[in-house]
Amino acid sequence: MFKQKLITIITLVMLLCACDMQQQQSQLSQIKTQNKIRVGTLAGASNYYQAVQGEQGFEYELAQEFADHLGVELEMVPFFNLSDMFSRLDSGDLDLIASGLTYNKVRAQDYRFGPTYRTISQKLVYKQGRVRPRDFDDLTDNLTVLAKSSHSLALQQIKQTHPNLNWRETEDLDEEELLQAVIDGEIDYTLADSHTLSLFRRYHPNLSIGFSVTRNDPIAWLLRKDGDDSLYALMVPFFGEVKHSNQLYVLEEKYFGHVRQFNYVNTLAYIEAIKETLPKYQPWFEQYAGSLDWRLLAALSYQESMWNPRAKSPTGVRGIMMLTRDTAKQVGVTNRLAPEQNIKGGAEYLTKLEKRIPDRVPQPDRTWLALASYNIGWGHVNDARIITEQQGASPDKWADVKKRLPLLIKKRYYRKTKYGYSRGDVAVKYVDNIRRYYDALVWLDENDAISTPTTEPDDAEQIDQPTTQAAEIKNPKPATIQTTVSPTKDDSIDEQAPQKKDNGEQ
Q1: I need a labelling partner for 137 at 20 to 30 A (CA). Which of 63, 97, 102, 329 fits?
Q2: pLDDT class of 264 with cuts at 50, 70, 90
Q3: Is 116 exposed, middle or buried (0-12, 13-18, 19+ CB in 10 A)?
């Protein structure tokens, strides 16, 4: 009898263990069975958005990498407020949330955080022209933040030391709409994550930073806190792999690498030039862009000359696209001060540079490599690609080559290259500037914020003769090269004057 009872007990224990193991594997098993992982995110430029080329965004691409790691399809589910997104996660309609959310002890009581993969900071922002608040005690009017957000949780903690602090919470607006409300004067202050703010200020320079509310907040994905470890167990090695393989850095560079620095005066001048100067030349950018995006060509031209058809460098590079004499001859330009000819020639030259890049290099990397070549020549860029490969990184990824271009100013590196010394550090800054200009122009164009083009440029601009009013294009100070995404600096000033070309091989 005892033996029979013992067998029965052992059998029950084994059944319970089997059920427990099945329960632990249930979420992953369901994902595998459905061949799909459902990932929630807040719609926005830093997470997920629909572009002409399809779905885009840092969190989207990272989630796609995870889906590929699991061997399943990705279903990205965009939301417009946190309440709905958390509700769907709670109900089991989502497998995880990937939305750039920061770790918080209060939130950790209800949800499980995955491994940390980035850090950001929270900024208090206000409209340029108001008195700058330097602390919460300086706030005089309405402060509004997203309901149930990391911003709300941060304010709850801060209220313990600032008992008079008050704010409003909303679910009707997203983070970018709150920033726009500050610009429009509908609210006085809000909080924004540093990466979102950096992207937003590309085309809204009148948004200013009062002070940092938090610093180095860790970002992680969120899972239900239900005792199921199956998905989390695979998430840990995944993040270790994307960090080790440099894929995480490549994504950070793609979406945020060019917006680390902000210059209020430069950005404001650019927005004004889009309204006042661009319409004069836009028809030619569109006409001669060919396979290029005319907005990229216009952004390149602004970086080169600030759309000044009489621009001239001390080395003799001239015109709205800043062509050398040799380059002008290559592309059939006989009058470098004639803006139509110069734009046509610049477009043809950039197209030629892009065709020299190996076919295996994907977009947008080949575009960024072509732009760097426009600045310092393909020979120098290819030297940097060779160094990149020698150091075990990918010569076909701009993020990897970007880190090695500054090495061309160091003798121990450039003396072993085919084309020698080059200001690769300047080329990095050059490309970053163009990417910012391009992003802003795309946003303004898609939101119908660009003036109607004119087809009647000033005939005087066609005269090819010396002028004392010609702009002199100077090199800026070398850029500081960073290998990780850092929070936006408060009121950082980064002079971004157009840069002259290296006289190296082009």
Answers
A1: 102
A2: confident
A3: middle
Catalytic residues: 304
**Residue 130, pLDDT above cutoff 50:** yes
The rounded percent of the chain whose pLDDT value lies above 70 is 85
Query: CB of 120 within 8 A of CB of 219?
Result: yes
CA diameter of the chain: 112
Residue 5 in this model has a pLDDT that exceeds 70: no
Upstream peptide bond of 309 is cis (omega within 30 degrees of 0): no
CA atoms of 241 and 257, how far apart (whole Å): 21
Q: How far apart are CA 233 and CA 404, in angstroms?
A: 35
Q: Which among 363, 380, 401, 424 is positioned nearest to 483, based on CA atoms?
A: 401
Helical (H) or strand (E) element with 199: helix 194-200
Closest by CA to 100, choosing from 42, 37, 169, 24, is 42
Q: What is the pLDDT of residue 451?
A: 79
Edge to edge, the sheet with strand 118-127 lists 190-193, 118-127, 207-219
SS3 per residue for 114-154: CCCCEEEEEEEEEEECECCCCCHHHCCCCEEEECCCHHHHH
Residue 103 DSSP code? P
Find how far residue 340's CA is from the centre of its chain. 32
Burial class of residue 46 (count of CB atoms within 10 Å of its CB; 0-12, 13-18, 19+): buried
Average confidence (pLDDT) over 422-435: 94
Pairing of strands 190-193, 118-127: antiparallel
Q: Pull the structure tokens for residue 292.
A: 């290029």
The pLDDT confidence band at residue 84, using thresholds 50, 70 and 90, is: very high
pLDDT at 23: 46
Residue of 150, 137, 266, 151 whose CA lies nearest to 201: 266
**Token pair in block for residue 426:** 């300047």
pLDDT(332) > 50: yes
CA-CA distance, 270 to 365, in Å (whole number)? 25
Give start and end residues of each alpha helix (H) in 315-364. 325-330, 339-356
Tokens of 317: 């590079």
Q: Given this model, what pLDDT does residue 261 score?
A: 78
Give residue 455's pLDDT band: very low, low, confident or very high (50, 70, 90): low
Rounded to whole angstroms, the Cα distance separating 409 from 458 reads 41
Nearest to 353 by CA among 401, 312, 292: 292
Q: Is the CB of residue 396 less than 8 Å from the CB of residue 408?
A: no
More confident residue, 129 or 344: 344
